[in-house]
Structures are given as structure tokens and as C-alpha cells.
Design brief:
Length: 118
Amino acid sequence: MGQSQQLGRRGEQAAGEYLTARGMVVVARNWRCRHGEIDIIAREGATLVFCEVKTRSGLGFGAPVGAITPSKRARLRRLVGQYLADTGGHMGPVRIDAVGILWPRSGPPTVEHLQDVA
């Protein structure tokens, strides 16, 4: 596994811990279908929350959540639709969030959580 993959996995772990610490319950990680992957699926009360996690070690390419482009948001909406179709749907509200992890080479990570991004 390359360094960027390792950083991504560490970021997804940190994002899961962050969401859990804020009262969310992680119900799935790395859900995949032929169209792509949803990093984290969690519950916040009655709401099913689909989280895209972006992790970077620096700001040379911009903030992590800046990597979630309009086309990525559209793909996330399609993935959520596919997840709901595959799992029999969800009767409550759904939301798509972005979690950006900035994890410098030295020091702890910082987390940016944006709700309802798509």
C-alpha cells in the first residue's frame, strides 16, 4: 500500500472517530458497488448520513474538502441512490456530508466537517 493510500485509511479512521465522538453511529465503511465507493455511512438520530472523506498532509493542493468537485457530488448522489436501492431504502431523511482531514507529517490531524454538501 502506498503512502497516499495509508494516509487515506488513517483519515477515514480519524473521520469515523470524529463522527462517533459527536454522537453518530457508524453503520458501514467503504461500501462499494460498480459505480464507486461511499467512505462512511452513519446514523445521526433518524438521519442516514453518507460521508465522503478526503485526507491530505498539507495544503499544497488546497483544503481537503475542496477536492469534492461538482462532478464528485453528483457521483455521491448516484451512489447514495444505489445504496438505498440495494438495501431496501431508508424511511427517514438522508444527508451527504464531507469530512476533510488535514494530517501534517508531524502533529495531530485537524478535522473539517461540512454537512449537506450534495
